[in-house]
Design goal:
Rossmann fold
């Protein structure tokens, strides 16, 4: 009999418990039954509980000296948590810290990772810091520390067998210069003096230890889930074999921002594994004791997750004495009650995407670092334009899309160039921007289908765009500034110029300038600012990075109007402000329901209410939102979920037209 697929619980709590050895009353007030009931009342169906924290301490009975010195004598904190949660039907995967271990670092300083100058690697708030700063010493997995960690993991797997899952944390690629790391590099004929070689070996080492620990868990508990957190999500094509699920850690107020999750989920959801988003109940970031997020913010973050087909995980940190924060679980319970009520329209739903957006490789080491401005700008712009899109790579099934966007700085050549040419020949449309179309030298068109001649980088830092009639809809009649430098191109025979470059009088310099900012426009040049050759359009600027950096509305209008030529019948149209987010999900027919499409509408405007924080405190309702969905045939019913309020609709021109009376934060329009 075929084994059923792993179903990832959809209402999780990630319960941090990083408790320093100076805390002397760990678990003093812990009541297992009350702990589990608090989770049950909050509609939680999975809690990640701690075997080992960043301080390197263990929270269960063991002969190992790493047991927390302040843990209440005789208390099996982890074991009682797991048992009590299981009694309530709640899953309880177990957390193990990997490269953060203060106990091991202090006992064995020779195991601590070293920088190129031999100073220790230490992190405070996500950055390298002084030796005596309050922060985590980072362990080198090439040292005997890896075997030390394996012994701890083996004990956890044996003591709690079978485990529901293991969540390994702090697992990025960590270059080092310890004797072990250098010795293993030289054995592979890598040069320890070379930073690129150190990074390459760090990646090889990470792959090796992930394979080792994944095999350990699965050998002990074949049905357990395994996840390695802190990895660059764009490496999933190579690393998904080590994972049973994908988790996107993204605390919007904790440094990730509100674009990190929607940008990354559009890529992470393509690998056939269950996936979830992870935010937290904190006002700011992890371990923000006393910081409680406003309910509208947490409602938005969980609504955004389910709108993309993801499960939800909310981070918390248990107080050292072991009592859950009552206000935190009242908040979590409210938002998870909403999620639970909507689950009949979420289960098995898959995203519908018409557009594939290539991501710009960034070479980041940690999933908590932001990626390029291009990725942020493209995600933001396409979301504001209501396009339904995935983030793709060269390995993706490009034939699944009607339009591909190759933004700004993608290296197009070899196999990728051949695949894009084949995509166009098979009827697909293509938008290419910036260096993606002309190479790093600005002189080598990457695809013949672009239909342009390239003349190198523009000598001007800022130029201007004059829109032609085909792309002038809603654009004020002016020459609009482009703050980022582009490349000079002219149209080849058969290619239409959609917009022209207006160059300034001269490049601004310290001894040669005019007025306060960029030099004013002179006159239209012979160079094109946008072209189209049948189904292939080219904008020779890093327009998505520029939009991320400057938010200049005419840039979005240029992309919108060019895409209207390439994709005249988008999957979804919706009225309302540009901050309205939309996703389209599809459920196949089942015994419980017919085949149906669910359109999610989200509007939760964030405001800059603190120096470095975008906050959501209020839900601002939208009235009378028009929605138009492309559909092959007329539906039998259209209604709002979960209320099942029927909506009047019209089917015309291959589209379902409906008006939603009110969107109060999040609305789900079901088309059956």
């Amino acid at each position: 009999m075929k084994k059923p697929p792993f179903v990832l619980p959809s209402r999780q709590v990630h319960l941090d418990f990083h408790t320093g050895p100076a805390v002397g009353d760990v678990g003093a007030d812990f009541d297992a039954a009350a702990f589990a009931r608090a989770m049950k009342r909050a509609h939680v169906n999975s809690v990640t509980v701690f075997a080992k924290c960043h301080h390197g301490h263990l929270y269960y009975p063991t002969k190992r000296p790493e047991r927390h010195p302040g843990l209440k004598p005789g208390l099996d904190l982890l074991g009682e948590q797991v048992e009590a949660l299981h009694r309530e039907g709640i899953r309880a995967p177990i957390y193990i810290s990997v490269q953060c271990d203060e106990y091991a670092a202090n006992a064995h300083p020779e195991w601590v990772a070293r920088m190129a100058d031999s100073s220790q690697v230490k992190w405070t708030g996500g950055r390298a810091d002084k030796v005596f700063g309050a922060g985590w010493q980072i362990l080198d997995m090439s040292t005997p520390y890896q075997d030390f960690l394996a012994e701890q993991t083996a004990e956890v797997l044996e003591r709690f067998k079978p485990v529901d899952g293991i969540f390994f944390d702090m697992c990025w690629d960590q270059p080092s210069t310890t004797k072990e790391f250098v010795g293993q590099m030289t054995a592979r004929k890598l040069n320890p003096e070379n930073e690129a070689d150190r990074s390459a070996y760090a990646r090889e080492l990470a792959f090796a230890y992930m394979a080792r620990f994944h095999a350990m868990v699965r050998a002990s508990s074949p049905d357990a889930s395994v996840y390695f957190n802190g990895r660059p999500l764009f490496n999933l094509a190579e690393e998904v074999r080590f994972l049973e699920q994908v988790e996107i850690e993204a605390l919007p107020t904790g440094g990730w921002g509100y674009m990190y999750f929607p940008k990354n989920v559009r890529y992470a959801r393509q690998f056939g594994k269950p996936y979830l988003g992870m935010t937290a109940r904190f006002h700011k970031s992890w371990a923000d004791f006393g910081g409680l997020k406003p309910e509208p913010a947490l409602e938005y973050e969980t609504s955004q997750m389910i709108a993309h087909g993801a499960g939800c995980s909310i981070g918390d940190q248990l107080h050292p004495r072991g009592v859950p924060d009552a206000a935190a679980y009242e908040l979590i319970g409210k938002v998870y009650a909403r999620v639970a009520a909507r689950e009949p329209w979420l289960e098995g739903a898959r995203p519908a995407a018409q557009v594939g957006l290539f991501q710009v490789p960034t070479g980041i080491l940690s999933s908590t670092q932001t990626s390029s401005n291009t990725d942020d700008g493209a995600t933001r712009m396409l979301t504001q334009l209501r396009h339904q899109f995935d983030v793709v790579s060269e390995a993706s099934r490009l034939e699944d899309y009607e339009l591909l966007v190759v933004p700004d700085f993608v290296k197009v050549g070899g196999a990728l160039a051949r695949r894009l040419s084949a995509f166009v020949k098979q009827g697909g449309a293509l938008l290419v921007t910036g260096q993606s179309g002309v190479g790093e030298d600005g002189k080598t068109p990457s695809l013949p289908e672009l239909g342009v001649k390239a003349h190198g980088a523009s000598p001007f830092t800022a130029t201007y765009v004059r829109f032609g009639k085909e792309v002038a809809a809603d654009v004020p009649p002016s020459d609009h500034v482009m703050y980022e430098p582009g490349v000079r191109v002219t149209a080849a025979a058969g290619t239409r110029v959609l917009a022209k470059v207006v160059e300034p009088y001269f490049e601004r310099a310290w001894d040669h300038f005019s007025s306060h900012r960029q030099t004013p426009p002179d006159r239209a040049s012979r160079f094109a600012a946008a072209t189209i050759n049948e189904r292939v359009a080219f904008i020779p600027y890093p327009i998505f990075a520029a939009f991320s950096l400057h938010g200049n509305v005419p840039l979005r209008l240029l992309v919108r109007n060019v895409l209207a030529l390439l994709l005249p019948d988008p999957l979804l149209r919706a009225s309302g402000p540009t901050g309205l987010e939309t996703t389209v999900m599809r459920q196949e027919r089942s015994a419980e329901h017919p085949a149906r499409t669910i359109v999610h509408l989200l509007y939760y405007p964030a405001e800059r209410r603190a120096k470095d924080l975008d906050l959501i405190e209020d839900i601002v309702p939208l009235a009378d939102v028009a929605v138009s969905l492309r559909a092959a045939k007329a539906p039998k019913a259209v209604y709002l979920a979960p209320e099942r309020t029927a909506l009047a609709f019209e089917y015309a021109g291959g589209r379902v037209h409906v008006r939603v009376p009110e969107v109060r934060g999040h609305a789900m329009v079901v088309v059956e």
